[in-house]
Specification:
The chain folds into 2 domains: about 90 residues; about 40 residues. The chain contains 4 helices and no strands.
């Protein structure tokens, strides 16, 4: 995880440098365009140039996000008290935590949930009345997936 934190810090610096260059470059280009416009039309009401906001904000937020991730991964690495087995080259499979979660390959509820969520999003795009059908199916799918292991062959 230490290597991951370093990679994210490098990305933070990279995005900050690129964002600064992009902001300055777009500001210069915008000022040049304003000067050309003022020469053709006249100086009446021409304001100073401005950077291209979509790319500028996006690149600065990429730097901020990479910084957040670097900080989080670095703090997680320091709090775990050493290298994880996944980070060591000499580790065996048995060194890791055997319990990684629960997976049920026979379950159909994730497919039902994906379909109902698709109908819900379709309602936002096409007609809002479809959202009510999608919301009802989504509730049924979530309840079905939650209570799948409380009934039938796979109950606890």
């Amino acid at each position: 995880m230490k290597v991951n934190a370093v990679i994210f810090w490098v990305l933070t610096v990279f995005f900050a440098i690129v964002a600064a260059i992009y902001t300055g470059w777009s500001w210069v280009v915008s000022n040049q365009q304003m000067e050309e416009y003022a020469q053709r039309v006249g100086p009446g009401g021409i304001a100073a140039g401005h950077p291209e906001w979509a790319g500028t904000v996006t690149l600065w937020l990429c730097a901020v996000l990479a910084g957040f991730l670097a900080f989080y991964v670095g703090k997680s690495y320091k709090s775990q008290g050493g290298e994880l087995p996944e980070d060591r080259l000499d580790a065996n499979i048995d060194d890791g935590d055997p319990e990684l979660g629960h997976f049920s390959p026979w379950s159909w509820w994730p497919i039902v949930l994906a379909g109902s969520a698709s109908i819900l999003m379709l309602g936002f795009a096409v007609g809002f009345w479809i959202c009510f059908i999608g919301a009802a199916l989504t509730v049924i799918a979530v309840v079905g997936w939650t209570y799948e292991y409380y009934r039938g062959n796979f109950r606890h």
